[in-house]
Design goal:
alpha/beta; 14 strands; Rossmann fold; 16 helices; 315 residues; five-stranded parallel sheet; five-stranded mixed sheet
């Protein structure tokens, strides 16, 4: 009996040891998982972050990217609703405009993460007061699709939703690559003039801008890349000399009628304008703001496709 009891005691002791060993290993694994993700933002900050619970986005496109990453929002700027049409949670409130965010309103929400633009001085000015309040700040700069893909990767890493990175990032990247490959089969490089119109006139843009980069990817030659003086001053003489194959225009402002009138007054009333090849052949195109002024995010591939269809008309 003593021997049997001793054997039982040893068995129980071994079972308990094995059990505690499993529990301790689970604890180690959980601790490692809680360390969060480490990344560098556009201000050069090295950040290690766990999944946040209360997030504020100070730009409509950033709000959309965070939602596309499977996150939730407690605060956004007005443009998230007015220009992006995003639909966050019912209790999400506005914290001002993207270039005039209200610090008090942001602090009152008690966020543990705020997404900001490194290109907006009003956002950079909020870095210190937010961090003094113990709130993590992460800055992004999104100009082209690769920038979007980088931000989406960081956001989906934070939310642990790699499936959404594949859906809203990698699948879109494949779509864009296919579109670019199809355009490369066409050997010629059409020349383009890319304009943004304001209330006071028009401004020529080069290939460093969002839409300019897309046009370059599709094999276009932007006349402002060679003639940089056009970036400083709208010069009809230089434009006539270049005589671009296509003219793309993005109208600024919310008043479409006023924008159209401004185009007529500042550009189209010039008799020389109607002599341009692009105008005569109906290649003078007004581009939709939601696809080419605002960041298209998960619809970036659609924007490339839109431009490709226009460029293909020349063939």
């Amino acid at each position: 009996m003593r021997i049997k009891g001793l054997i039982c005691g040893i068995s129980l002791l071994l079972a308990c040891s094995l059990s505690f060993g499993c529990i301790n290993q689970e604890s180690v694994n959980q601790t490692e998982g809680d360390k969060g993700n480490t990344f560098t933002d556009s201000l050069g900050q090295t950040i290690q972050m766990k999944t946040p619970k209360r997030v504020v986005a100070l730009m409509g496109s950033f709000a959309e990217i965070w939602l596309e990453s499977g996150g939730t929002l407690v605060g956004v700027t007005d443009d998230a609703f007015d220009k992006r049409g995003v639909q966050p949670e019912k209790d999400t409130i506005t914290v001002g405009t993207y270039n005039r965010p209200n610090l008090e309103t942001i602090l009152a929400l008690g966020p543990d993460l705020v997404l900001l633009s490194s290109e907006t001085k009003e956002h950079v000015a909020l870095k210190k007061p937010l961090e003094q309040a113990g709130i993590q700040t992460v800055f992004f700069r999104v100009t082209d699709f690769n920038d979007y893909l980088n931000m989406l990767k960081i956001c989906t890493d934070i939310t642990n939703r790699s499936d959404l990175y594949d859906k809203n990032g990698k699948e879109v990247e494949s779509q864009i690559q296919q579109i670019i490959t199809e355009r490369k089969k066409i050997e010629e490089s059409p020349s383009v003039l890319f304009l943004i119109t304001y209330s006071g006139g028009a401004k020529v843009e080069d290939s460093k801008t969002m839409t300019g980069k897309m046009l370059k990817d599709l094999g276009c030659r932007n006349i402002a890349d060679q003639n940089v003086s056009l970036l400083k001053e709208f010069n009809m003489e230089s434009i006539l000399e270049e005589n671009p194959d296509f003219i793309f225009v993005i109208p600024m402002g919310n008043d479409e009628e006023r924008t159209r009138k401004n185009l007529v007054e500042s550009i189209e009333k010039n008799p020389a304008w109607n002599g341009l090849t692009a105008v005569k052949k109906n290649r003078y195109i007004l581009l939709p703001k939601e696809m080419f002024l605002y960041k298209p995010n998960a619809r970036w591939g659609d924007s490339y496709e839109y431009l490709k269809e226009i460029l293909d008309r020349k063939q």
